[in-house]
Amino acid sequence: MASRAKKSRGKSGRKAAATRKKSVKRAKVSMAKKSAKKSVRKAAKKAVKAVKKATRKRSANPIARVKRIAQEITHQATAAVTEGVETLKEIGENLVERVTS
């Protein structure tokens, strides 16, 4: 009986290269997923910090509270008056256009 030479049981060159490429692709994808998860976690942490910072306890001084509320009301009233004046100007311009045309 003639004995045949044993072949290597490894994958052929093409198959091995394809397998390597797939494993490299998987590694890249998993790294991308991990970095995406990290960035999501960081963003969540920043959001939590922002909320905590915004909801920090303000001073218990009632005078400071009244002052803060009065300033906010003044700001809102100023914005409303400005918008109203601009609207009245537009209406006046429209009337002038209708009368002159």
User: The biggest beta sheet, please?
Assistant: none
Order of helix and strand elements from N to C terminus: HH
The proportion of residues forming helix, as a percent range, comes to: over 70%
Percentage of residues in strands: under 5%
Mean pLDDT, as a whole number? Answer: 79
Number of helices: 2
Regions with pLDDT < 50 over 5+ consecutive residues?
none
Key descriptive features of the protein:
elongated; 101 residues; 0% strand; mainly alpha
In words, what does this structure look like?
- The protein has helices at residues 13-54, 62-100.
- It has 101 residues and is mostly helical.
- The protein contains 2 helices and no strands.
- The protein is elongated, with a radius of gyration of 36 Å.
- The longest helix has 42 residues, at 13-54.
Provide a compact summary of the structure.
The chain has 101 residues and is mostly helical. The protein contains two helices and no strands. Helices cover 80% and strands 0% of the residues.
Secondary-structure blueprint of this entry?
Elements: H1 13-54, H2 62-100
